[in-house]
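Per reviewer request, we include the raw input and output of the structure prediction for the construct analysed in the revised manuscript.
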Amino acid sequence: MAGFGNEYREDDAAGVILARKIHVFLAERDEAEAFLCLEHQLLPELAEELDVDVAVFCDADTRFYEDGFSIREMAPNPRLNGLNIHSMGPEWLVALAEQVGCAPKRAFLVSVTGERFDFSDTPTAVCMERIQRAEKAFGDFWLDMIQNR
């Protein structure tokens, strides 16, 4: 479980907040051993920690999602969109983990649409509501995935 974003940039905190909530959900389940990693941004060093059955990444997104969030399975993608550390997304990190022999069997990204990314340690009310909906949807998604293994 990895949540990334800046908790002092309003809705950019969505990934960190949601990761904490999903971690609690997973930790309470008998079939899941969950560890939590919270960062301002993804770093290459995290690749070695991805030798797990399932990796879940949570992040804020500037893209609009009809439900206010998106849950999708990811495939490794070694392509970077730019030349700085901020261009490294979870797909790139999973590809790096694959290269060093530590790739998760499955990886998912839960993205929450953010409204504002100004300086504040409080997300917008709209974003908080989207985080709550994403948390519930992930719980339903996880239970369905476990039942259909």
